[in-house]
Design goal:
Helices cover 37% and strands 39% of the residues. The protein is of the alpha+beta class. The protein has helices spanning 16-26, 58-72, 81-87, and strands at 3-11, 30-39, 42-50, 74-80. It starts with a strand and ends with a helix.
Length: 90
């Protein structure tokens, strides 16, 4: 299993979750865990996904999601699990 951490942050609007989840489903990426909150008008979502079912490279997936974020008005970032864990080690 190849895990990736996806974060989505921005002003809340209709369709954020639908847009991100549609991209993931269309590319064979499975959601393993998801958490989302809205604080006042701001949307925040963190997902752990399994990318072993996609033919996209991490770089292509990251670029695609970044472009999707621009289109829907949020910032979307992707990090490989091992890099995420290394950055958050104490």
């Amino acid at each position: 299993m190849k895990k990736t951490i996806i974060t989505v942050v921005g002003k809340d609007t209709v369709g954020i979750i639908a847009g991100v989840c549609t991209y993931l489903a269309d590319n064979g990426i499975n959601i393993l865990d998801i958490s989302q909150t809205i604080v006042q008008e701001y949307f925040n979502m963190m997902m752990i996904v399994d990318t072993s079912g996609t033919e996209k490279s991490h770089s292509d997936m990251s670029d695609d999601l970044k472009a999707l974020g621009v289109k829907i008005g949020v910032v979307i970032k992707c990090q490989r699990e091992e890099i995420f864990q290394s950055m958050h080690r104490i």
